[in-house]
Fold this protein.
Amino acid sequence: MKYLLDTHALIWYSENDPKLPQKVKELFYNSNDEFYISIATIWEMSIKIKKGTLIINRNFDEVIDLIFLSGFKFLPISYQHTKELLKLPFYHKDPFDRMLVTQTIYEDMTILSKEDLFDSYGVKRYWIN
């Protein structure tokens, strides 16, 4: 199965935060699954860190290093992803979340997110507290 981590899931994973549910952590030990980080997530984090609206316990480079060390893959934003955005209803206006929705649908992934707003788009979402 292919999973796309929402921004908070990546941050909580990188900081070993107890807000990341144990059932989600257990997914990372299944070698048959693939885990992706959208470039939209990295873009969002860098903007929010610069603005001071996101404070993380690691520096940005350490988070990127952890992505590589964990075997996660980066998911670029493609022309097809931007084209798919045109099909999305405006249930949610955040451009980063909208891109994650589009990528989840287009790439046939499951998003790892606590945000139930993704459900209104009919995406596959996994999160068990």
In short: The CA atoms of residues 14 and 63 lie 6 Å apart.
